[in-house]
Hints:
With 331 residues, this protein is α/β, with parallel strands linked by helices. Helix content is 31%, strand content 18%. It contains twelve helices and twelve strands. The strands form two sheets. The protein has a six-stranded parallel β-sheet, sandwiched between helices. It is globular. The two termini are 14 Å apart.
Amino acid sequence: MDIQGKKILLYVSKFHGYEKKIKEALEKKGATVDYIDNKVHRLDPHATNGRFKVIRKFIYNYFNLIDFYVEKNVVPLIISKAYDVFFCINCYSVNQSLLNILRKNNSNLYSILYLWDSTHLFNWHSLTSHFDKIYSFDKLDCETYNYRYLPNFYIDTQHTLFYPDIDVFFVGTSNFDRKKVLDKIISQLKTDASLVYFIKLLEKKKLCPTKVKVLADQFIIHNIIPIDELDEYFIRSRVILDIECPFQSGYSHRLIYALSQNKKIITTNAHIKNEIFFDAAQIQIIDRKNPAVDIKWIKTNYTNISSSNFVKKYSLDNWINEILSGIQIDR
């Protein structure tokens, strides 16, 4: 689709600056883009695996927190504007009122939903039927709900070439069992004093910290590392560690980016072995309950570039081309 001169409402949560990159990429293609934060809510009632599900749902239904956010922070920005495309990523702050207003004010609106979280984590089934086209990064969700399969994108950036001086790299948020998995992996990495690893787990500060610590303080951070700094550590690393959320078959941005940069990968996502680019010399699959890390494998370099060539089609520019493909808009 040629989006030159088209007006797009981009509704995506703030996530490592990706929302800015998507907006810039759409604008480079000639679109006029309005960005609004698709706010992630604490204790989101759509979350399927969190604790206190009944309490969360009661709080949100009683206080109408999502409705309040949409009414106060979204509707005033869109009520008098016309759009050709509504491009939404996840449904954190989507409700029926928002969808109705967009349809009422834009009779020819084309709506696109991309899910970069699994339906095992968030249940948005009551909202998905209102979108013209739905993509998901999770292949199992696509097979179950007839969504279009499209892996996450990576941002193609130019780098100064580094000889790897970091053997293993991981930075991620603390969720599910990541802390326990990391603790088991780190205990194995410590057996070789020559290994250099940069491992940080982002965790919210607790008012009442627990006395029993699963992971040493040196591996815990409480503030987000700037994306440029993260990227430098990433490029300097030989092996990228990927611990995906349980119940999820889709690949993280981290994993796709690692493939594009021809990095070696240690991952708990066993679904990757079914991909045509899978190469055991590059990708080591570990069991999340009993992760066994091959130290010798970590130290060897990887020179085959077949996987990096394969994932070129998932660069942000190509990813957007696929998202917008086949759309017909008459205004």
